[in-house]
Amino acid sequence: QVQLVESGGGSVQAGGSLRLSCAASGRTFDGYRMGWFRQALGKEREFVGAMDWSGGNTNTADSVKGRFTISRDNAKNTMYLQMNSLKPEDTAVYYCAARLRISSKWDYWGQGTQVTVSS
Known about the structure:
The chain is an all-beta fold. Helices cover 0% and strands 53% of the residues. The chain contains no helices and 11 strands. The relative contact order is 0.32.
């Protein structure tokens, strides 16, 4: 079955960097769009960014634009979220997700990884 497994979360001081990984398995993801979401305690889940598995068509939320970068390594079946200039308000559980490009519904989700940014 499809599995998305996030890793790379942790605690960092404001201004620091982290790189999250999302290892995808269980099917070929050609024709899929891969995304990153986050959910802070007591808040709704928020879109962070996404890219097509084939590459390109990358977009990020305004709140992280210029600080976060999405990339992927097809050979490793892994998507990355490089997070720079982290702020305390970036503290959240970060999830990766996958959906068909032609669909609006995110079908597959990882278990999440905690990112904590201290001031």
